[in-house]
Amino acid sequence: NAGVMQNPRHLVRRRGQEARLRCSPMKGHSHVYWYRQLPEEGLKFMVYLQKENIIDESGMPKERFSAEFPKEGPSILRIQQVVRGDSAAYFCASSPNSGDSSYEQYFGPGTRLTVT
Amino acid sequence: AQTVTQSQPEMSVQEAETVTLSCTYDTSESDYYLFWYKQPPSRQMILVIRQEAYKQQNATENRFSVNFQKAAKSFSLKISDSQLGDAAMYFCAMGNAGNMLTFGGGTRLMVKP
Fold it and tell me: Is residue A35 within 8 Å of residue A65, measured between CB atoms?
């Protein structure tokens, strides 16, 4: 069973460009979470999605950031008009549908975004 | 709001010795889980151990064990017989069913040969 997959692993964008980060959850998982990790800090929650629904986006910046998890295909975190402060590692995690194990989140390897 | 605090930015331990990493948390929820994640230089987040809040028995996983003090809202990680491969950032985290995880700021563990 493949783990959570993220691509690209590294992404370099110039200020003003768009960054698109992809996440494929583990097979059988329908819950996806995005977190951001700034250098020397812990992970900070951004958004929680289920298929075709945003459940909690309380951690998302109000502007330039959006996320989706379509019926088919990976979850996408989109950052428009990137600025240097967006440089960070972005982690995706997934969890199963229900039951006790739904508390546990499995993390992907992360995408390191560098804005130049 | 939930908060997780790790008061030790850095810790070091001699190989084969035991080290304890501290974590305190705050929540108004009665049903929650606590986790310790390891983040080596590769940046992959690896689950080390988890504890259900409703269980009184402390979780153990091989050389890793926790000291869960629910009344004190404390959740420390003990690593026994430390190995060089244990060197990493360690993050304490708390979660509720189907909800986000709240992470502490992390503790960098160094293992001396």
Answer: no
